[in-house]
Every structure is written in structure tokens, then in C-alpha cells.
Automatic annotation (TrEMBL):
<dbReference type="InterPro" id="IPR014995">
    <property type="entry name" value="DUF1844"/>
</dbReference>
<dbReference type="Pfam" id="PF08899">
    <property type="entry name" value="DUF1844"/>
</dbReference>
<protein>
    <recommendedName>
        <fullName>RecA/RadA recombinase</fullName>
    </recommendedName>
</protein>
<feature type="region of interest" description="Disordered">
    <location>
        <begin position="108"/>
        <end position="127"/>
    </location>
</feature>
Length: 127
């Protein structure tokens, strides 16, 4: 009897080996580094959605405040949930989050009430 999951296709086995290698590599990365990388990715994406990568953010074709709100809120939740594990990275990550929250407030035509902006349910009001 043959196992239907086994194949004689050599590329199928190499894909599995490649996937296993990636999992092993991830297992070697400390949790704080994974969390910090995720935070940096969220920060970068939020900055793009705020148009901050362009010379004139108001004219940026990438500006999307609804998307920026989601990314900033996700970042705030991640920072709040992982603050105790971030160690020396906590301060810079919090500073980056606050900068994005302030940039969002400045970019908004009708700014949210204090405490109602993106991520402020996790961080408190940002001024």
C-alpha cells in the first residue's frame, strides 16, 4: 500500500524541505525580535498610508486615512500587549506610535475627540 501523501516528484520534497528550513530559522529568532519586526512593519505601512514617505503628504497618492487608522490601532494593540517584553525597544516603539498618532490627527480634516483617535483606546489620549 502506498501513502497518497508521498510523491515521486523531487520538487515536492524540496519545497517541504525549504518550508522546514524556514520554520527552523523562525524558531531561532527571539520573540522580542519578531515582535519588534512586526511593529516596524506596522509603523512603515501606517506612515505610507499617511503619505509621510512623499514630499507633500497631502498630495500623496498612497494616502488612505482609513487604512492608516487600522494599522495604527493594530500597532497600539501590539505595543500594549507586548510592552513588558520589548525591553530597550519599548521606548522607541512607543515614540514611533505616538508620532504616527499625532500625524494622523494633523492629517485628519475633522480630528477625532481626544481618546478616540487610532489606538488611543490602548494608549490614552495623544496630544
Amino acid at each position: 500500500m502506498t501513502d497518497p501523501n508521498l510523491t515521486s516528484d523531487p520538487t515536492a520534497n524540496s519545497v517541504t524541505e525549504a518550508e522546514e528550513a524556514q520554520v527552523r530559522e523562525l524558531a531561532a529568532i527571539p520573540a522580542v525580535e519578531v515582535i519588534t519586526r512586526a511593529a516596524v512593519m506596522l509603523m512603515s505601512a501606517a506612515a505610507e498610508k499617511l503619505g509621510l514617505a512623499d514630499a507633500d503628504p497631502d498630495e500623496s497618492p498612497h494616502r488612505d486615512l482609513d487604512e492608516a487608522r487600522r494599522l495604527i490601532t493594530a500597532l497600539a494593540g501590539l505595543v500594549q500587549a507586548s510592552a513588558e517584553y520589548l525591553g530597550m525597544h519599548a521606548g522607541p516603539v512607543r515614540d514611533g506610535l505616538k508620532s504616527l498618532q499625532l500625524a494622523f490627527r494633523e492629517a485628519s480634516v475633522a480630528p477625532d475627540e481626544p481618546g478616540q483617535g487610532p489606538g488611543e483606546k490602548y494608549t490614552g489620549p495623544v496630544w
